[in-house]
Amino acid sequence: MAVLEVDIRKAGYAADAEIIRNIAFSIEAGELVGLIGPNGAGKSTTIKSLLGLIRYVDGSVNFGGEEGRYAYVPEQPVLYEYMTLWEHLQLAASAYELDEATFLQRAETMLERFRLTGERHKLPTGFSKGMQQKMMLIIGFLLKPDVYVVDEPFVGLDPRATRDFLELLEDERRRGAGVLMCTHVLDTAERICNRIILINDGSVVAKGTLGEIREQAGCAEDAPLTDCFYALT
C-alpha cells in the first residue's frame, strides 16, 4: 500500500519560472526512499512542493496510510525564542491532538533516548546544532505518522544520536510508516534505503534500487552509490 504518491509535472516560486519538472514517485508502507542530488538540483523544491509550501505546483500529491498523517523534520530547526524544550514538545502535541497520557509517555521515552531529559526546561536557542536537531527528531517521532519527510537529518548529530535515530526509524518502518529522506550522506543512503531517487537540474535522472541505479548510471555491479552520483550528475 502506497503511503505517499507524488506526481509533480512542474513547480516553482513563480507561475512562469519552473524549478522542477516531471517528478513522479511513490513510497510503500515500511519503505525508506532516499532523495539525493547535488546542491541546487531541486531537492528542497520537491520537498516544499509535496508539503504544500509552494504556490505554483502543477501536479498531485497524496498522503495515504490509515490517517494520511505525516511528520516533516526540516534541515534547519524551527525554534521559538522564549519556549523551553518541553514547551516545544507540548506545542507539537497540541497541534497533533495527542492525549496527555500518550504525549507524556512518548515524550519521556524520546528525551531519555536522545539524552535530553536534563535539558527539558532549558531554551533550545542555547543548544548546540546537534541538540536542536535532536529536538526536531523527537517532535517528529511524537506523532507516529504514516509518512516521515526528513531533510538532511544527520547534520550535527554525533554517532550515538545517529544510531538512535536510525534504530527509531527502523522501528517506525516495521510499524508501517514510509520515509522520504533527503541526504548528502551517500554511504548511509546506500546502506539503509530500499530505493533511491536521484535528481539533477530539476528532474529525476535515475530511480530504483541500488542495483537499478548502477545499471542506469552505467557503473559496475559493485560500484558505490558515490560513483553513480558522479556518473549521473
Automatic annotation (TrEMBL):
Matches recorded under Gene3D superfamilies: P-loop containing nucleotide triphosphate hydrolases (3.40.50.300)
Domain called ABC transporter: residue spans: 3-226
InterPro entries, per the entry: AAA+_ATPase, ABC_transporter-like_ATP-bd, ABC_transporter-like_CS, ABC_Transporter_VariousFunc, P-loop_NTPase
SUPFAM superfamilies linked to this entry: P-loop containing nucleoside triphosphate hydrolases
Keywords for the protein's UniProt record, in alphabetical order: ATP-binding, Nucleotide-binding, Transport
GO MF term list: ATP binding
CDD domains membership: ABC_DR_subfamily_A (cd03230)
Superkingdom of this protein's organism: Bacteria
Protein name: ATP-binding cassette domain-containing protein
Organism: Paenibacillus glycinis
